[in-house]
Queue: 2 jobs
Job 1
Amino acid sequence: MGRSFDQSKTPYYDAVLNYINKGRTAFHMPGHARGRIAPQEMIELLGEKIYQADLTEVEGLDYLHKPEGVVKEAQELAADAFGADHSFFLVNGSTVGVVAMILAAVKPGEKLIVQRNSHRSVIAGLTLGNVEPVFIQTRFHPEMGMMTGITPEDLKECIEKNPDVVAVLMTSPNYFGMAENTQELIRIARENNLTVLVDESHGVHIHFHPQLPTSAVDLGADMVTQSVHKTLPSLTQTSILHLNGDRIPRRRVQTLLAYLQTSSPSYLFMASLDVVRKQMALQGKELIDKAIQTADDARVEIKKLRHIYSFRDEVIGNYGICDFDPTKLTICVKNTGYTGFELEKLLNQDFNIEIELADLSNILCFITAGNTQNDIAHLMEALSYYDQHIIPVQSRDITKLPRIPNLILTPTETFALEPVLMDFEVADGQIAFEVIAPYPPGIPYTCPGEIITQEVIDLVTELRSIGSVVQGVSIDNKVKVVKY
Ligand SMILES: Cc1ncc(COP(=O)(O)O)c(C=O)c1O
């Protein structure tokens, strides 16, 4: 029988509160001396209390990198709440979680399967770990103009062609809430003795509601990283890394996180993680019910518009999409004549609305239990306006992805060399020094060490001409290539 946990407890938060109440005379960092000399502007913005709780590494409050007291207890409660064997609090977002997963699971010189629509932290992990990527091209939804996920067939084919791979790194659900067939992907990986790493940055909440895609933690992935700050009410930068089974030693993960993260972790961050864990364990389903209902109410209203539309479960079944998280409200605006980028700006300027993300054809709103009917009414006022004031629709769909270019140097080999700047239009055949990716969502067309192809040059030029920002290509159209 496992240990039973009382999820109403908040050991870390309580310890911070008790410590503050001791009123100890302070001769230690941070230099604001519990707020006594904090700049007035910051006190006006945040109040004094936050400075009292802004502690690090003081007596009785345990150590993130050597947890034996309240941090250990809080992390054990988190593991129980999220269904993992072990959980580690992260104070540098999922960015550090992704890097740690790669370094923990893959040795220098080994090969890792990576689905192409990965976050740039994957490139950091590959570079630091001297890991050779084997990319799987992501399926592409041509009407929505977005990358979706990979299919079990894609993974099988990749393993057959690359029998020397040791692990696979998947990203699901994607930014837009589309989940791939993680269960089957994990089964195939297991059949081939691969370690399974999952970037679930956009799905920290899915474990807490039966109508949402199943979390990779519940499906037995070896390691899963989740951005708690993205969809749950914790402070920015707070994330969590879960470890299951014994393929990867816990000690190794603990050491890596101590190498990669600050030695002065914010106690505000960790207290925030502790309390949000309690909130989700006790009220998660109820909060997510409310978010789903609010998003669905918005979808009902959007359906009444002529040119703007949204989707829900109808996306399931195609392009590798196996499940969907309805709290992600994607609004397709391409029939208004505006790009998503243009509409994002207009929503800012004319309606004082800030959305999560825009791409060429869509805008994305994250809906949480914190959104009210008034928020939806305000959004609908704006959408109705643009639905009635469309501009001539230009053909600006990007309906294909460039082929994945050949990898000539690994990311580590590339990083060791010197970059030179050259004109992007004539870079065909050069080796890229940096990621070239339309942003957002920042999914690479070319990765460091890959050949820059004419196909990528043409596609990027077209995208930039219609307002896309492209990482890795400067405003004056220069690109960094490897000098060789
Ligand atoms: C898929 C994915 N993975 C990882 C990250 C990094 O997460 P964080 O901001 O928590 O460091 C992001 C951030 O947008 C992401 O989209």
Note: The pocket of pyridoxal-5'-phosphate is lined by residues 93-95, 98, 119, 121, 171, 175, 199, 201, 227, 239 (CB under 6 Å).
Job 2
Amino acid sequence: MDPVTVRPARPEDIPAVAAIYNEGIAGRQATFETRPREPEEVAAWLQEDGTLLVAAEGERVLGWARMTPYSDRCVYAGVGEYAAYVAAAARGRGVGRQLLDALCREAEASGRHKLIGRMFAANAASRALARAAGFREIGLERRHGRLDGEWRDCVPVERLLGEAEG
Ligand SMILES: CC(C)(COP(=O)(O)OP(=O)(O)OC[C@H]1O[C@@H](n2cnc3c(N)ncnc32)[C@H](O)[C@@H]1OP(=O)(O)O)[C@@H](O)C(=O)NCCC(=O)NCCS
């Protein structure tokens, strides 16, 4: 079996990235989003500010992690926000951890001093991944939004990087 490697996403990865995102949307544990994304919409991420990494086993994309700007205010230029999605068939094998570790390195190398994230309080896997990758849970955001009409609590997380870490 090929080793799992993490690398920047290429245009040919986009259908798999979209499929993995849509699997996460359908699972109703990852995001408030409910509309499946077309590959064309996901392809636009490659042109936008930020970073998109994929974890691949040979030709097969197993998951992705993305960093986007936290804010359009320049005072927060050092803060990035992450999202990570792994195909259901590849979860629990350390792929999410590999992706998030690589994204933290990438964020630091590009001069970010902090990476933040946010997940549903009920998303045990995402909270465990964040903790394992060195993120701190900041608190509990009660009733942060509704998914299918039901209130969901969220947990924001943060990890300091580079000089800020010291
Ligand atoms: C969250 C997600 C990305 C984690 O990826 P993964 O590849 O399955 O996670 P890993 O195998 O790298 O595990 C990372 C850590 O989380 C733990 N973990 C993984 N799944 C878990 C689960 N279901 N319950 C509790 N802990 C879990 C692992 O034990 C590991 O911790 P450790 O290093 O202390 O042992 C994946 O479950 C996923 O894609 N879920 C659907 C999309 C989603 O919710 N994305 C997050 C949106 S905020």
Note: The chain has four helices and eight strands.
